[in-house]
Description:
alpha/beta
Amino acid sequence: MKRAYNFGAGPSxxxxxxxxxxxKELLDYxxxxxxxxxxxxxxxxxxxxHTSAIKHIRELYKxxxxxxxxxxxxxxxxxxxxxxxxxxxxxxxxxxxxxxWSKKAIKEAKIQGITPQIVATSEASNFDSIPKINFDDxxxxxxxxSNNTIYGTQYKEFPRTSxxxxxxxxxxxxxxxxxxxxxxxxxxxxQKNAGLSGxxxxxxxxNLLNRVKDSVPTMLRYKTYAESNSLFNTPPVFSIYILNxxxxxxxxxxxxxxxxxxxxxxxxxxxxxxDNSQGFYMCHAKKDSRSLMNxxxxxxxxxxxxxxxxxxxxxxANMIGLKGHRSIxxxxxxxxxxxxxxxxxxxxxxxxxxxxxxx
Length: 359
């Protein structure tokens, strides 16, 4: 069977090695006679998976002891509401608006009667860069989105803040090392870089857990998950199982440092193809803000006819998921951890040949 090169923005590619293990173990996990999907979340069989996933996260991220690792459901979208529910103390909160996902988070804060300070935005230039930021030192928390899938922008390093920094890292989890001195909470849905949809990873500093008010429902408190080892109710067992396999795969590749080097090499191939096309391709993001995960681009003059033709040629060549987000159009290659160097090289060759043919 020939697998497609999946450049989709999410749900996205999962390492072939992970899928092969899951396929082999699907009916009979560890000679238990049942699938892991059938195992009780209170059983020793599942506990080994749950414990292993948390352990791998701590080791791969070199996580300090004063952080909790939590498994939640509801995706990153649930976190847009849970962050203010759990961290707002009645003071100011500040958000950096870098696109659709940060705007959705701002909206959820407003629904709760909070008026966020928008300390920086690149909206005037259609979110083509990470803006320069001036933070207030005395806020309940500061909120950023580390990577913007639609616009192809990404922070090169997290800012230093005096207020607790919250990072939505849904689209670049486990792709670079993190300076935990700068971060107080980091979260992300797994379906772009860490496995399947259905599991959201929350890494939070322990001293933030007691901020939550008694009026917040039990299942919407981070403290509930911390006190129960994320087993207060039935967790998404199969999604955590796949997450654990993906983390083991990252470890087998040399860890996050090695993955980061590979991601930079993949991104360079595509950005060089765009930059060396004599204007045939145009990158949406400014050079100093370009994402290593999502390469958003257009064909000159935003020629939709040629873009459609390139998409058709790509599909014929077994490459899928390259259509840009509906809000900005164009094309987008998502090159998450699981995308191979071979796949990126194949796409670059296709783009180069297409440009020569239509220049």
